[in-house]
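thought: fold this chain, then report.
action: predict
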Amino acid sequence: MKLLFSALFLALVLLPVSAQGQIGVYVNPIATRVSNSQPDTGPFAFLGAGNTSQVFWGANIGGYYDFAHGKSVDVGIDLRDSIQGWNTGRMNNFLIGARVVATSISPKWRPYVEVAGGVGTSRAPHQSIKTSRGRFGVFAGADYKLARHLDARVFEIGYGTLTTTSSSAVGNAPIGTPNPSYPSSGLLSFSAGLVFRFR
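observation:
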């Protein structure tokens, strides 16, 4: 998180700030492939007993504020919450990130990259216990201007990690054994939809 705030501070210092920022809000469908290196066979297996990957579906809800404007890039922040599920299992990721938008490529296209961090909460199928851990991700995408206040989010692809709930994380390890390690799951996400701009 220190790196994220340092990048935001540096952007504020180096880029001339416009009087008007750009604000956008989006609610888009999202699909995320969650993968583990080893299967979990216990009752709290997040991907199902014996599975090493699963696709979760849901909605990506968020907004951005591009507050600094340079000759070829805009810099801003993005706040998002993704809510996804598979077979009664649930995953919720709340992230805040720094974003950089290329503005010199075309007046219609706005490609961007983001680095984000936050909290991910997961619950295994048919269970009520949730676990929350730190979540990090990198995202890249492109918005295309359709109208004055409407963009099409043509695509967004993201990759990150999250230590999801598991039988060892919930505490099913036998008494007297060393603390189990909780391996991170890889999260590869795809999203597209609409962005509503207010400025």
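thought: worth noting. The first strand starts at residue 22 and ends at 35.
final: tokens above.
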